[in-house]
Amino acid sequence: MGNALTTICATSDIHSPQYLELFKKALANSTCKPDLFILAGDIVEHNNIAEYRRVLELINSVHPGIPVAAVFGNEEYVGSEKEYVVRYPNVIFLHDNYRVIDTLTGRIVAVGSRGALDKPTQWQAKNMPGLIKYFRDLPDKISSLISQAASTNLPIILVTHYGVTYRNLTGENPAIHPYLASRRMENVIVNHRNVLKAVIHGHAHNGLVESIDIDSVKVYNVALPARGRIIKVEV
């Protein structure tokens, strides 16, 4: 059991109801048999909290009883996190913290966050004045969380919504790379390469690169509009 691979099925950016039919087809065509399902943010459009249920019902119809872990995206609005947690108690929501998760093949640790950006959007900068400092401080916080999680001696994955490097953003306009990812998060991965088993993120809808290696750590962009399918991650 201790040496068993844990199979994770991962996706993000369903923006339900916008890409719900694509998600339904992706689930139907997927060969991924998960021990854990991960939703890497922007599961609904414009904070439509009720739509989250439709996504979860689809997952449960194909993979009944499989644990689901999730981070929030920019479309799950800041300040609404508690409402998602209350409405969907069966989801393991990760919000700048880590959780030990019991999967079908054993226990792993998921560190999760919306993530950071090198630049907030103009709307974010105007309406969320504390966000610039939050983005600046977050990589250090995530690094600390990974260090704490390492004390469990369990496999660790990092899940964010925003990207963690520019190196897998081919297909996106370079002018918007700072609004898609944080380059400082790449340093977090490098510094914890000995304990991180995988990194999963979304947000880059046009990213042509499914996965890259950062110092032997596999980093996946699982955004549904980019991939068109469910991504299989084994740790």
TrEMBL record:
Spans traversing the lipid bilayer: none
Pfam families from the UniProt entry: Metallophos
Domain Calcineurin-like phosphoesterase intervals: 7-206
Gene Ontology molecular-function annotations: hydrolase activity
Protein's UniProt name: Metallophosphoesterase
